[in-house]
Amino acid sequence: MISRNFRTSLMLGVASVGAAAGLIAASPAMAQDAPQESARRESPTINPGDIIVTARRTEERLQDVPISITVFNQEQLNNRNVVSAADLATSTPSLSANTNFGSQNSSFAIRGFVQDLGTAPSVGVYFADVVAPRGASNGLPSGDGAGPGAFFDLQNVQVLKGPQGTLFGRNTTGGAVLLVPNRPTDTFEGYVSGSIGNYDMRRVQAVLNVPLSDTFKVRLGVDRMKRDGYLHNNSGVGPKDFNDVDYVAARLSVIADLTPDLENYMIATYSRSDTHGDAQKLIAADPAYSLGHFASEQLTPGSPNYQGSGFYDFAQDLQDPRSLLTVWQIINTTTWHASDTLTIKNVASYGQLTDTFRNPIFGTAFETPAIAQIGIPSYRFGFASSQPLPGRHTADESTFTEEFQIQGRSSNDKLNWQTGAYLEAVEPLSLVGSKSPVIQSCANSAALAASQCYDVLSFLSTLAGGSSAPAGAINTTAGRTSFHNVGLYAQATYKFTDQFKLTGGFRYTWDRENNTSVQTTTITGFPFSLPTFQPLPAGPIFTSCTYPDAPVQDPSAENGCRRDLKQKSSAPTWLIDFDYTPTQDILVYAKYARGYRAGGIAPNVTASFATFDPEKVDAFEIGTKTSWHGSMPGNFNVAGFYNKFADQQLQVGFNANPCQSTDAAGNCISAPVSPTAAPVNAGKSRIWGIEVDASISPFQGLLLQAGYTYLNTKLTSAKTFSLDPGSPYVLSGTYLVGDPLALSPKNKVTISGTYTLPLPDSVGKVSFGLTYTHTDKMLANTGNRFYAGCNGTANQNMPNCQPGAVSDPATVAYIQSLTFLQPTDLLNVNVNWDNIAGTPIDAGFFASNVTNEKYYSFFPGLSTGTGFETASVGAPRMYGFTLKYHFGG
Fold this sequence. Notes:
By secondary structure, the chain is mainly beta. The strands form nine sheets. The chain has a 22-stranded antiparallel β-barrel. It has a five-stranded mixed beta sheet with strand order 3-9-10-7-8.
């Protein structure tokens, strides 16, 4: 109902804005005072060249804001070749990206605050003051981030560190990333640019800004990029490359000055990304343990399914993988300057996100041996994959937000305040779901849709006189998820003197999540004819409910296997900040903030872990911001922080229970479920560290910039977890007291330098730039360190080990080491020649990861249940050339 009403009101609103703009355009005398009004409202402390941020929902100088912030303008983003969330994280101290499910579904982590599978974001992503659309997908992440095409035609990107829940829409404990688009201006201008690069990269961008009148301005932008993937699939099945790029993004912005004091700013955005998807590659296997035998074949030169020797070689078993993500959003901001001291603003948005995710995820293409004596051929099968439910998407959600805000100040400028109300409603547009085979040999997606897959391993085990129990299954999930968030907030700053200020803020938030899902497990077999053992057409044997807590356990009954889950939470958050500015160029501040992140639902695990509670953080920070001018201008900003977590939401991995039951001979029967993960309220932790941002221009033409973060994280208490009796899962590893938090490197430093040659304007502007980033090792998972392998003892309570099987100690040690991601040192370079020979033509060269460092960006921690481990692979050296023509201005 909200969506229908909003769409109707939005159309009426846009129509009325257009009509009003037409009337005002016909009366130009009314608009002539607008620049004077705008100038009268501008802060006198903002000067040309200052970096302007909107961290407190109003325009301020970066150096005046008591928040640790890293800011990149569009030129800096281009020079660093930032086209995705993972690229932004590489260049930003304190910021990391979780790439477990691909670059376009990456989530951010700041200061140890991580968004895990199933949790609300710990770092909010906002475009034009509006939170990114959600994409609940019943088990896989989607939405909530900076998707394809987000990083073009921007005024800047602001990374705010620490809890920002007082003023921003959703409550977040880690911080916020603000994408600020370029607004339409009163100048006819634009540009067209084209780029080419390695991996057959092609990119075209175009922006046109047209002031149709003094009171009506339009800006239109398009970004189209395509690039081959850098992972090479050597299985002979499916596409040859993964981790590719193929998107189109478009943006329309309209500003209508309805009166000198009333402005309407509308933005419509659209993006569509259609790729093979990102995949992980197999990197380690123990042939003595579980599926490690088949995985080791994939790593062995000369084997039929060898994945290759190159770092970017891998193998997978899907014929038609695809990652199709479509997002559109309309944002309408109406601002009324009711007086010199009072501004009223309304920000409304509506968007839709649709995701179709068919992906091998773990990059496996296992193969059974042929048995020539009885005519049994070899069969290829994958460990586990994610595929959409036939005829459905994996995510299909609408997001509606409404925020009403009042800003004011006293006539003597002693008091500045703002208050507002926030509503967010996320509703499913359709039933979504996935059908995922686990240790199944499926000919193609059509065979999977009909559950016509073979359980080859069970058949081979039976032939060998072993257990005839199912080795795998097909897991099906279908459901709907909705979110509702309401918040009321107020914040005020009182200036005791020109040097001393006190800021206080308070917010109360109510959050609700509802999920309805049906999850079934289908057992298949291996029908064959005698005496030839030739396989017969495959088909399902029986289907059961995956989770025993579903009220109706008959899948064929009405509401069979259905689970209805809900989670409500509410909490206050607040901020107290004290500022001291002895001079205009020095700011000293101290603040305390309470942060809160809503609880939620994990529908893909058993009852005792299906819901989790909110987490809370008390954040303390002191800092200073210093600027200086003269012949060597620069700035030096430093912040120290200490955070105390309670009921922290941390990720725990769940692997298939290798001995959920036993057969008549006492052989263990493994649960036929795929590995998953879910958040739990694991305990308490503390985080402290230091952040530094600095820049200096030693002489004209040279600019040096540096950012550094020292981050010390530690889990100070941890809860003990136990699973339900008969659970299909076992914990793959848990956090221990003393553990660091995931994706939290102790040291991260970014150093960049740009030198502009002293050339006359008739030649143009030529600059050279370098950016170096070092990231320390960081925790990726808690599971691999518990891997023990097999020791040859029959009664070792290790059903994944056969009697007499012994693991190689070196292999066990290597798998255990895959708990931490290793340090990286990445170098980017860029060369730009703007206004070539005085013409409106720019040329540039860019390269990222110049040294072609080979590194992994994530380990999922599969080993304790599978005997092997996979990894997300970091991007290799990327380079390209850009030619740009700009006009107007």
